[in-house]
Design brief:
9 helices, about 60% helix, globular
């Protein structure tokens, strides 16, 4: 089954906002159980379909992505991991990064349901907060904000750090203002 094509009636800004919210939601859905292998995660939490209790449930990937944008140091381990994840999504990774190939499947060949694509990314990969953020950004950009479940949008704290509730939403508003200029 392939993912339904994007709705051509969705406004451009809704796709941008969907991408940003999807990124934060995916990171938040996965960060409590990140770095656990899928079998461990299932044993401990069952299937993750909503945010898990976590004092630090945040959309930190938004800041990490923005903060690393200008980095060009090939010796930077964060950059190497990010490059490896992108190769994995393209399908040309080798070695341990192949663990996250379900993310590619969730976006490219997965169900035509954006929620299920994110659920699969968060449950079926080891680096599930990063993969969840990537898949969330992709499905948000393809399908717009309204395709992201309302309970996820309402439940998002919007943190980029442990003590800045709402920061993600401030960044989205700044992006909206920038796009309007």
């Amino acid at each position: 089954m392939s993912m339904a094509p994007p709705n051509p009636g969705i406004r451009s800004w809704d796709r941008v906002e969907g991408m940003l919210l999807g990124l934060a939601i995916g990171d938040s859905l996965g960060n409590t159980s990140e770095s656990q292998v899928p079998a461990q995660r299932r044993q401990r939490y069952g299937e993750i379909r909503d945010y898990l209790p976590n004092a630090h449930a945040e959309g930190r990937a938004v800041v990490a992505a923005v903060g690393r944008r200008g980095a060009r140091d090939d010796d930077d381990p964060q950059r190497r991991r990010g490059d490896q994840r992108l190769r994995c999504l393209r399908g040309d990774a080798v070695g341990p990064a192949r663990d996250d190939s379900p993310a590619r499947s969730a976006v490219v060949a997965g169900p035509d349901d954006p929620e299920e694509a994110q659920v699969r990314a968060v449950n079926d990969t080891r680096d599930n907060d990063t993969v969840g953020a990537i898949v969330g950004a992709a499905v948000g950009a393809l399908h717009g904000t309204e395709a992201l479940p309302d309970r996820w949008r309402r439940g998002l704290l919007g943190r980029t750090r442990a003590d800045d509730d709402g920061r993600v939403f401030e960044l989205i508003e700044k992006a909206r203002h920038f796009a309007a200029v």
